[in-house]
């Protein structure tokens, strides 16, 4: 595993983000304790096709963290910091052995004699001994940078594993000395163990016993409920599953599933699924799915889905750099009976019976009532669409039917928007009438000086003065509008004009005429005049001209 080739680039990224990137991109199983290790340390590293051993050694250098390979896992553990090094060129007084430095022989210098006693210390990853130099002996080292130190002869002063590197510093007499910190005994995190299969009744009442929380199972069957460190295969329970770390594979339960960190696979439950971190795969629940971070895949629930944002740190720039190492391009699908909420980015589809809420959307939002988002690169389809950085327009027009009309157009993008429309005709001596309605439309060539809009609106017409007409009296209108920006391309002000096609469907009974009739058709050249004694349909051509802001 440690010889696996790795290519990564990081710039001031948190150590924890780097470790997660290695785990996701290269399948490296890394175990560590969040409480025992400082994983917020920044990392800057760029390697091309280097072994994992080299990357880890460089990554953990000077961070008081060591590692070792246990089975198929890389286990990180804390290393107590060494005492400060003496200044370059300083020497121990005659007859006093330095406690923090061990002199090393040069390539041509003979090994000095040693006192009978040897001091034994532990390296960051092995159990080796290092002998102290004699008080008056001076051992030289080759002129080089970081290099492993090895003992070639029994009388040599040093015996370290090749995972420990030391750096040469210049002495006043131009000779090169190597300073080796004397490591202290270290704390090693207790790694999780792996078992091929386990069966339990409830929690620790099973084949793993009290070590259930420290065991990763390949196959896990829990009659009522189970608790484990993780799953790398298949897990099923009659009621619930709880895994404190991650699940890779399939997890099903009658009531609920809870995963502490990461999901990679399928999670199915009768009530709910909860993931404490990000996920890849499919969450399916009868009621709800909750993920603390982004899920790349599918979330389906009877009531709602929640998707948290990407993890943020105290240094957002660092996290952004780390995220650029492993950009997420997988699509996300959220489908729920009531609503979907995604605090971060959605790449794909959000579909809900009631409403959707998201940050940045790259795809489609579809809801029965309302879509809310910060920005949309795609379309938001719903009766109401509120997008902070979306399509917002106000239009004031004059048509052949309505002397004054106004529209408020809202959408995620110009590709699709909805609008509220109103119209009034009560000027002069004619009968007063007014209308309210709703419409949909699309805009093309938005950033050009000349653009095109296709609008379809439906307005309920009230012809009873100021009162509401209860009968069906619907004015449907299709508009083909050409917009012109007089000042600059993509400007906020546009002159709009174009032809319209109107179709009026009415059941309004006119007492003066004694028949179904509407004053909107008075004086029109009709291309459509159909209907019965109770319902009439008329059609005519017209125009629309106005301003758009």
From TrEMBL:
GO cellular component: outer membrane
Region described as Disordered: 82-157
Protein's name in the database: DUF4974 domain-containing protein
Keywords attached to this entry: Cell outer membrane, Membrane, Transport
InterPro entries per the UniProt record, alphabetical: FecR_C, Secretin/TonB_short_N
Gene3D superfamilies per the UniProt record, alphabetical: 3.55.50.30
Residue ranges of every copy of the Secretin/TonB short N-terminal domain listed in the record: 28-79
Pfam families registered for this protein in UniProt: FecR_C
Taxonomic superkingdom: Bacteria
SMART domains per UniProt: STN (SM00965)
Signal sequence extent: none
Biased composition regions of type Low complexity, renumbered to the chain: 100-111
The organism of origin for this protein: Hymenobacter montanus
């Amino acid at each position: 595993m440690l010889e696996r080739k790795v290519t990564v680039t990081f710039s001031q990224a948190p150590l924890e983000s780097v470790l997660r990137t290695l785990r996701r991109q290269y399948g490296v199983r890394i175990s560590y304790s969040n409480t025992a290790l400082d994983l917020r340390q920044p990392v800057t590293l760029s390697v091309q096709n280097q072994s994992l051993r080299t990357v880890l050694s460089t990554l953990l250098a000077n961070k008081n963290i060591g590692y070792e390979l246990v089975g198929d896992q890389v286990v990180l553990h804390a290393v107590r910091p060494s005492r400060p090094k003496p200044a370059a060129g300083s020497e121990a007084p005659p007859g006093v052995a330095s406690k923090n430095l061990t002199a090393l022989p040069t390539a041509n210098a003979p090994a000095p004699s040693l006192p009978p006693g040897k001091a034994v210390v532990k390296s960051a990853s092995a159990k080796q001994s290092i002998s102290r130099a004699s008080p008056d002996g001076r051992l030289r080292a080759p002129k080089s940078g970081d290099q492993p130190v090895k003992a070639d002869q029994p009388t040599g002063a040093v015996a370290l594993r090749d995972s420990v590197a030391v750096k040469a510093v210049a002495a006043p007499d131009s000779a090169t000395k190597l300073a080796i910190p004397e490591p202290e005994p270290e704390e090693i995190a207790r790694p999780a163990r792996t078992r091929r299969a386990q069966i339990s009744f409830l929690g620790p009442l099973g084949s793993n016993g009290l070590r259930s929380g420290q065991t990763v199972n390949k196959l896990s069957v829990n009659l009522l409920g189970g608790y484990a460190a993780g799953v790398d295969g298949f897990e099923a329970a009659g009621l619930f599953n709880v895994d404190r770390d991650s699940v890779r594979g399939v997890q099903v339960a009658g009531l609920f599933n809870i995963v502490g960190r990461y999901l990679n696979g399928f999670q199915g439950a009768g009530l709910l699924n909860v993931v404490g971190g990000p996920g890849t795969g499919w969450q399916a629940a009868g009621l709800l799915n909750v993920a603390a971070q982004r899920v790349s895949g599918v979330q389906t629930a009877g009531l709602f889905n929640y998707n948290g944002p990407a993890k943020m740190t105290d240094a957002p720039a660092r996290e952004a750099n780390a995220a650029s190492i492993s950009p997420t391009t997988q699509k996300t699908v959220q489908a729920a009976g009531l609503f979907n909420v995604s605090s971060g980015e959605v790449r794909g589809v959000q579909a809900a019976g009631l409403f959707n809420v998201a940050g940045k959307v790259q795809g489609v939002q579809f809801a029965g009532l309302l879509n809310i988002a910060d920005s949309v690169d795609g379309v938001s389809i719903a009766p109401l669409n509120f997008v902070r950085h979306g399509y917002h327009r106000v239009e004031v027009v004059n048509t052949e039917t309505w002397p004054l009309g106004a529209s408020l157009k809202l959408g995620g993008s110009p590709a699709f928007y909805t609008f509220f429309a109103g119209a009034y005709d009560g000027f002069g001596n004619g009968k007063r009438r007014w209308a309210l309605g709703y419409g949909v439309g699309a805009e093309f060539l938005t950033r050009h000086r000349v653009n095109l809009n296709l609008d379809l609106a439906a307005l309920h017409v009230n012809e009873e003065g100021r009162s509401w007409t209860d009968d069906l009296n619907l004015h449907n209108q299709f508009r083909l509008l050409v917009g012109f920006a007089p000042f600059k391309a993509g400007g906020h002000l546009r002159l709009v004009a174009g032809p319209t096609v109107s179709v009026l469907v009415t059941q309004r009974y006119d007492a003066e005429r004694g028949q179904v009739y509407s004053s909107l058709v008075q004086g029109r050249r009709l291309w459509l005049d159909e209907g019965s004694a109770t319902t009439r349909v008329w059609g005519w051509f017209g125009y629309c001209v106005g301003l758009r802001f």
